[in-house]
Write a structure and sequence with these properties.
The chain is an alpha+beta fold. It is built from 4 helices and 3 strands.
Length: 131
Protein backbone atom coordinates (compact mmCIF):
# COMPACT_ATOMS: atom_id res chain seq x y z
CA UNK A 1 0.00 0.00 0.00
CA UNK A 2 2.82 2.44 0.75
CA UNK A 3 4.15 2.03 -2.80
CA UNK A 4 0.81 2.85 -4.39
CA UNK A 5 0.23 5.87 -2.18
CA UNK A 6 3.72 7.28 -2.75
CA UNK A 7 3.66 6.78 -6.54
CA UNK A 8 1.72 10.05 -7.27
CA UNK A 9 4.14 11.91 -5.03
CA UNK A 10 7.11 10.50 -6.95
CA UNK A 11 5.53 11.41 -10.28
CA UNK A 12 4.86 14.97 -9.09
CA UNK A 13 8.43 15.26 -7.81
CA UNK A 14 9.86 14.00 -11.11
CA UNK A 15 7.75 16.47 -13.09
CA UNK A 16 8.78 19.42 -10.93
CA UNK A 17 12.43 18.39 -11.09
CA UNK A 18 12.21 18.05 -14.88
CA UNK A 19 10.67 21.52 -15.13
CA UNK A 20 13.41 23.01 -12.95
CA UNK A 21 16.14 21.39 -15.04
CA UNK A 22 14.47 22.59 -18.24
CA UNK A 23 14.29 26.16 -16.95
CA UNK A 24 17.94 26.10 -15.90
CA UNK A 25 19.03 24.66 -19.22
CA UNK A 26 17.02 27.26 -21.10
CA UNK A 27 18.44 30.02 -18.94
CA UNK A 28 21.96 28.82 -19.69
CA UNK A 29 21.29 28.73 -23.42
CA UNK A 30 19.95 32.27 -23.36
CA UNK A 31 22.97 33.46 -21.42
CA UNK A 32 25.30 31.74 -23.88
CA UNK A 33 23.51 33.30 -26.84
CA UNK A 34 23.83 36.72 -25.28
CA UNK A 35 27.55 36.37 -24.64
CA UNK A 36 28.13 35.12 -28.17
CA UNK A 37 26.34 38.14 -29.57
CA UNK A 38 28.39 40.52 -27.45
CA UNK A 39 31.67 38.94 -28.57
CA UNK A 40 33.29 40.92 -31.35
CA UNK A 41 36.15 38.57 -32.15
CA UNK A 42 36.27 35.86 -34.76
CA UNK A 43 38.80 33.09 -35.30
CA UNK A 44 39.31 32.29 -38.99
CA UNK A 45 41.49 29.51 -40.39
CA UNK A 46 44.40 30.71 -42.52
CA UNK A 47 43.71 29.85 -46.16
CA UNK A 48 44.59 30.97 -49.69
CA UNK A 49 42.74 34.28 -49.11
CA UNK A 50 45.07 35.25 -46.23
CA UNK A 51 47.56 37.98 -47.10
CA UNK A 52 50.84 36.04 -47.51
CA UNK A 53 53.02 39.02 -46.61
CA UNK A 54 51.10 39.62 -43.38
CA UNK A 55 51.18 35.89 -42.58
CA UNK A 56 54.95 35.62 -43.09
CA UNK A 57 55.57 38.58 -40.76
CA UNK A 58 53.09 37.27 -38.18
CA UNK A 59 54.70 33.80 -38.17
CA UNK A 60 58.19 35.30 -37.82
CA UNK A 61 57.05 37.48 -34.89
CA UNK A 62 54.93 34.79 -33.20
CA UNK A 63 56.26 34.58 -29.64
CA UNK A 64 55.63 30.89 -28.92
CA UNK A 65 57.21 27.70 -30.17
CA UNK A 66 54.52 25.74 -28.31
CA UNK A 67 50.75 25.68 -28.52
CA UNK A 68 49.09 28.25 -26.21
CA UNK A 69 46.36 25.72 -25.42
CA UNK A 70 48.18 22.40 -24.89
CA UNK A 71 51.83 23.39 -24.51
CA UNK A 72 52.86 20.89 -27.22
CA UNK A 73 55.54 21.83 -29.76
CA UNK A 74 54.22 23.62 -32.84
CA UNK A 75 56.87 22.83 -35.46
CA UNK A 76 58.04 19.24 -35.60
CA UNK A 77 55.70 18.14 -32.85
CA UNK A 78 53.86 14.85 -32.75
CA UNK A 79 50.41 16.40 -33.26
CA UNK A 80 50.71 16.90 -37.02
CA UNK A 81 50.59 20.09 -39.04
CA UNK A 82 50.43 23.41 -37.22
CA UNK A 83 46.97 24.96 -37.40
CA UNK A 84 47.15 28.72 -38.09
CA UNK A 85 44.24 31.06 -37.46
CA UNK A 86 43.66 34.79 -37.70
CA UNK A 87 41.87 36.36 -34.77
CA UNK A 88 39.86 39.36 -35.90
CA UNK A 89 38.55 41.66 -33.18
CA UNK A 90 36.76 44.97 -33.67
CA UNK A 91 39.06 47.92 -33.15
CA UNK A 92 42.21 45.76 -32.95
CA UNK A 93 44.75 44.59 -35.52
CA UNK A 94 44.45 41.02 -36.74
CA UNK A 95 46.53 38.51 -34.79
CA UNK A 96 47.93 35.14 -35.60
CA UNK A 97 47.00 32.28 -33.27
CA UNK A 98 48.75 28.94 -33.77
CA UNK A 99 47.66 25.53 -32.49
CA UNK A 100 49.50 22.21 -32.45
CA UNK A 101 46.42 20.38 -33.78
CA UNK A 102 42.84 20.94 -34.87
CA UNK A 103 41.42 19.90 -31.49
CA UNK A 104 42.98 22.90 -29.74
CA UNK A 105 40.74 25.31 -31.65
CA UNK A 106 37.69 24.11 -29.71
CA UNK A 107 39.53 24.39 -26.40
CA UNK A 108 40.71 27.89 -27.31
CA UNK A 109 37.16 28.98 -28.10
CA UNK A 110 35.99 27.89 -24.63
CA UNK A 111 38.39 30.30 -22.90
CA UNK A 112 40.00 32.61 -25.48
CA UNK A 113 41.12 35.24 -22.94
CA UNK A 114 43.05 32.62 -20.97
CA UNK A 115 44.95 31.41 -24.04
CA UNK A 116 45.51 34.89 -25.48
CA UNK A 117 47.07 35.83 -22.14
CA UNK A 118 49.65 33.05 -22.66
CA UNK A 119 50.50 34.49 -26.08
CA UNK A 120 50.61 38.07 -24.76
CA UNK A 121 52.89 37.12 -21.86
CA UNK A 122 55.24 35.31 -24.24
CA UNK A 123 55.28 38.36 -26.54
CA UNK A 124 56.08 40.66 -23.60
CA UNK A 125 58.90 38.35 -22.46
CA UNK A 126 60.26 38.18 -26.01
CA UNK A 127 60.17 41.98 -26.33
CA UNK A 128 61.92 42.36 -22.98
CA UNK A 129 64.76 40.01 -23.88
CA UNK A 130 64.88 41.02 -27.54
CA UNK A 131 64.87 37.39 -28.69
Amino acid sequence: MKTTASRPLLVALAISLGTAVSVLAHDGKERDKGSAKSSTSQLTRVDEKTDVTWLAKARAAYPLSTCAVSGDKLEGGSMGLVQDFVLKAAGQPDRLVRFCCKDCEADFNKEPAKHLKVIDEAAAAKAKTGK
